[in-house]
Design brief:
Elements (H helix, E strand, L loop, with lengths): L3 E10 L2 E11 L4 E5 L6 H8 L7 E6 L8 H5 L2 E4 L11 H10 L7 H10 L13 H14 L4 E5 L7 H16 L3 E5 L3 H7 L2 E6 L2 E7 H5 L4 E6 L11 E7 L2 E6 L4 H9 L7 E3 L3 H9 L7 E4 L2 E3 L6
Parallel strand pairs: 3-7, 3-8, 5-6, 6-7
Antiparallel strand pairs: 1-2, 1-4, 8-9, 10-12, 10-13, 11-12, 14-15
């Protein structure tokens, strides 16, 4: 049985359709990436899975249970981190961690708690009202990872964290996955998803438009090829498309089915500095959103933003 399964899931807010038949499946033990541009429906889907919203139609199960009727039972086995954490202003970070873990009926071992506080460089003695956004995220992350869970639902969990803390986060995700937990990760950092996730689902306008393993999805885009040479040195290159010469290098692209034939051709020639770059998750994402109003914001360099406005 899948840990998360939705079929034709719908959510309407008055005349506005937020989800229009979402089919999402997350299997036991996998780290599953959940991607989509602004307003695509990621946060709405996650809120339904967490029992915070009631679906307008369709079906959904989490850990084999109904997310609305069985929310209490589900949350005993689930840990979640939102993208914008709100803490009790008068409680210290350590007290907030204790409250959040006890809500799940557990108390983290002191050694695990101390390890996580150190890994995330969090001072637990400060009051919640004194924390920055990044430190509020750290409190929620420590609380989530301090005690075992069957399922982790992480909705933009590294929002506000610096690169070192993002690496600490990735280490913890790998740890819980190695221990057999399932992770649903909605992230605006495509490189993070690519590093962590074995499968991804891409949502657009309330529908899943692509789903599968990264290896499968990469077949939907082209491999970029280049080598040192002048115009004409690509003569006879099988399957090479979009050929151009830039800075003394021949550049082009190959459809998935053309790669084996091209490699045979290249092996019979001298192509100095030959490089082949497989399609990235970002390229796949832009294939769907690069020319739309809902395209990710790339102004932050390595961070391709895909966050929902619903939060």
């Amino acid at each position: 049985m899948s840990v998360i399964a939705t079929k034709a899931l719908e959510k309407r807010f008055g005349r506005s359709v937020a989800l229009d038949g979402v089919d999402l499946t997350v299997e036991q033990g996998e780290i599953h990436g959940f991607l989509g541009p602004n307003g695509a429906g990621k946060s709405t889907t996650i809120r339904i899975l967490l029992g915070l919203l009631r679906a307008s139609g369709g079906e959904a199960t989490v850990l084999g249970m109904h997310p609305w009727r069985d929310a209490t039972r589900i949350h005993e086995r689930l840990a979640s981190v939102p993208g914008d954490v709100t803490l009790w202003p008068s409680l210290t970070g350590g007290e907030a961690i204790d409250v959040l873990t006890r809500m799940r009926g557990q108390r983290p071992p002191a050694r695990d708690r101390a390890r996580l506080l150190d890994a995330f460089d969090l001072d637990p003695t400060k009051k919640g009202k004194a924390y920055s956004k990044g430190n509020r995220q750290k409190v929620a992350l420590v609380a989530a990872f301090a005690t075992p869970a069957d399922l982790y639902v992480l909705d933009e969990p590294t929002s506000g964290l610096d690169p070192l803390m993002e690496e600490a986060f990735r280490a913890e995700v790998r740890r819980v996955a190695d221990d057999g937990a399932t992770v649903l990760l909605s992230s605006h950092i495509l490189s993070e998803v690519e590093q962590l996730c074995s499968r991804v689902s891409i949502i657009r306008a309330g529908r899943i438009v692509e789903a599968g393993s990264l290896a499968d999805l990469r077949h939907l885009s082209h491999t970029q090829v280049s080598w040192e040479g002048e115009s004409g040195s690509d003569a006879g290159a099988p399957g090479l498309a979009d050929v151009a010469t830039r800075g003394g290098r021949v550049v082009g692209s190959l459809a998935p089915e053309s790669v084996p034939t091209f490699l045979v051709w290249a092996a019979q020639r001298t192509l100095p500095g030959l490089t082949m770059q497989p399609p990235s998750l970002e390229q796949l994402f832009l294939r769907h959103y690069g020319s739309t109003d809902a395209a990710p914001d790339h102004t932050h360099g390595r961070h391709a933003r895909t966050d929902d406005p619903e939060r």
